[in-house]
Amino acid sequence: MNFMSQRRAPLGAAALAVAMVVCPCLHAPSAPDAAFPDAFLSPAALAATRDGKVLYIACATAARILVVDLAERKVTRSLPVLPSPTGLCLSADDATLVVTCAAAHSKVCILETGTGNTVATLTAGHTAMSPLLSSDGETLYTCNRFSSDLSEFDLAGRREVRRLRALREPVAAALTPDGKFLLVANHLHHGRADADVVAAAISVIDTVTGRTRKTLPLPNGSGMLRDIRVSPDGKVAVVTHLLSRFHLPTTQLERGWMNTNAKTLIDLATLEPINTVLLDSVDSGAANPWGAAWTSDSRHVVIAHAGTHEISIVDIPKLRAKLGTLPEAVDESKPYDYTVASRIQADVPNDLSFLVGIRRRVRLPAGDRGPRALVVVGSTVYAANYFSDTLTAFDVAADPVKPVSIPLGPGREPTSVRRGEDLFNDAGICFQEWQSCASCHSEDARVDGLNWDLLNDGMGNPKNSKTLLLSFETPPSMSTGVRDSAATANRSGIKHILFTIQPDHVARAIDDFVRSLRPIPSPHLEQGRPSASARRGQELFADETIGCARCHPIGLFTDLNLYDVGTSNAYDRGVRAFDTPSLVELWRTAPYLHDGSAATVRDVLTVCNAGDRHGKTSHLSGSQLDDLVAYLLSL
User: Fold this and answer.
1) What is the model's pTM?
2) Structural domains of the chain sorted by starting position, each given as residue range(s) with its CATH number in brackets
3) 241-280 burial, b if ≥16 CB within 10 A, otherwise e?
4) Which of 120, 155, 501, 575 gives 110 a disulfide partner, CB atoms 3.0 to 4.6 angstroms apart?
């Protein structure tokens, strides 16, 4: 049973920073907390009080919340929370702060802002994030990324009411002004990768029934969704994401040939997408759009570019006016206008010049790295910078904009692993900053679920991107084994996918980051242990007559060999033997096989296993298949 998918070198431009900001004269404490004197802060989420006096910062790797008094211009408190805080939201009266703390069984801490005391702790799904309160403050929602659902809590009763299903890895949500619908941003697409159209989508969930009312499609190649925000006037929502050109061979990067970076506007009156607009410029990528925030008058939306360490300020009335001038179809009675790239609405997602005169692009101060979270207080934008442990602040109305950097702590010399993680998410090591390694492997070096035609094994033979987890322990690299090691693949990726030449210390740091990756517990475990079904499946996995363990022995779950197991297709040009990948974290690496043709593990065992070439499974009953799948998803 060979779950083949391509083991690839990191690509190039992503964003792992958090945009967060404070006043120019903010004074940071000498250390975030005596208990964590050496911890990197990694600011990952922000929340500001409605009077604009206090800013709360979730520090993901320091397990604490920093409290910033904006009037006094200093960090006044450091509140410990465990485990890692991923998201924040405040009650309408600012009396309580909700903190999502990511784990296999996440904690949702409700803090009293006056005292900093935790007054309640709730349990959510796997890797809870992006908490969201209803307008009446009675209902709380959290996105559970790896459970692929949302928790709905009754705050008065301090209990989880139900789970709301999403498509895949929900990372952000927003409520429509009437509270009737949740708009949920799914990080990755859900389905096969060898289809003509492969794209992540927005789930629209009815808050009364708890069911998905509709699914809003994004353009082909959309993925890596990060944030979704509703404008204060309730007319439009914006979602940030990548727009990948995965159908093209990766021969160049110019003009967004491989990855572009975008936002999509959604009309809340119709609950339909308005259009998708690129954030890049003609010769400069805006890699890895992350957090978004609106000004109070709904005129501007600001978007963090985590991979290029920038923030875009987009004039929404101007943008909508320009979009409104475009027809759905070409009027052949009018002369062809050679001066514009977009003649009709469908042209806009391919137009790198559409935001000219509509958007200002602000480069953060040198040293501010990885903006992710954003918040706007009055006319001041605050950005939290994940890798530099700093805030950036600027007046959105100023011309020119003058961003100011504020340290949140004394600062630390980054370790090689931390530096490698930064570089993995940095589009600065890519030609024209179009992408980073994280653009195709997400921020934590896993998958984007797309098939890419990389040039290291020829042209015209796309392969599914593969997680980099355990890549150093399981050579060779790439689905056809064309790279002897992950180190070789990393260096090849910098040269042939990021299209730059970097000093070897860059590749060595990325090596160290990838080596440091550890698997996280599966969401399919029950109280941290395999279910009864998974335990039965383990026996089937070890059964010699089925043969799974022969190629996937327990441990690394790969024998490091290449095999012909009947999965070659017309695009493989006679290549029949493919690398046996590890099954560790199989639950989060769909779709499967080297060409992404199996949407689910069950598909691998059934419809994609003609002749029992990768595991003798055709004789198994439906319940036995269920058990075997349960075991594989528990790894």
Assistant:
1) 0.93
2) 12-327+347-417 (2.130.10.10), 418-516 (1.10.760.10), 532-634 (1.10.760.10)
3) bbbbbbeebbeebeebebbbbbbbbbebeebebbbbbbbb
4) 120
